[in-house]
Write a structure and sequence with these properties.
Length: 267
Amino acid sequence: MLSPLAYIHPAARLAPGVTVEPFTTIYGDVEIGENTWIGPNVTIMDGARIGANCQIFPGAVIAGVPQDLKFAGEVTTAEIGDYTVLRECVTVNRGTVDKGRTVVGSHCLLQAYVHIAHDCLVGNHCVISNSTQMAGHVQVGDWAIIGGTSAIHQFTKIGAHAFIGGGSLVRSDVPPFVKAAREPLTYAGINSVGMSRRGFGEAQVHSMHELYRILYLSGLGMQEALARIEAEIAPSAERDLVLEFIQSAERGIIKGPGRRKSEESAD
């Protein structure tokens, strides 16, 4: 159903089954997948690419111009995957020349007042809680959960299956499978509950416990810890994901209990 009280540009491409409620504005360079519900008072601007079976709640603004002074009007997109829910007043800015797009994956939940800035890449099955503010160029892995009112520094990376406590200031990269909390943001164990809920077995959870025990609790320097992990932890998709993440962490990873900041860089 397309409300007669909504404005839909004639060039916009809406698949069958799309619902658009009153007082919503949809610009011309927009694509919306089948059976997506667009609530009232939503603004969907040029460059929006919204998947199927999504729900966009009142006040949301999708594909707004980036809040980046270097932006020069280049043609870019803001992409939302299938079955993703954007609650009230969520804002997702489109990309800049850096990546050309901002992406929120499929089966995600962005709660009220979340802001996703330009060139962010958010994976699938992520939950980003109320009022989280994400600066430009942030990357978030699949199944990550970010607690409410968190603020995430530009270019930061958050690993798959990570859990970040509410009210966090995320200034460094957060490795996969960990829980992070406190101020400054610190390793607080592995996300064993999340791993179990997502089908990881007891042996896989134990392996992550041992890996992060070596990394954060052994007293070793970063390079020594990584070498010991490679020697003592059996190769697996999870181990290799963690090692690759840490070795590519340009901002360094979050602190561990009692560790000096200078020890957290993989460089």
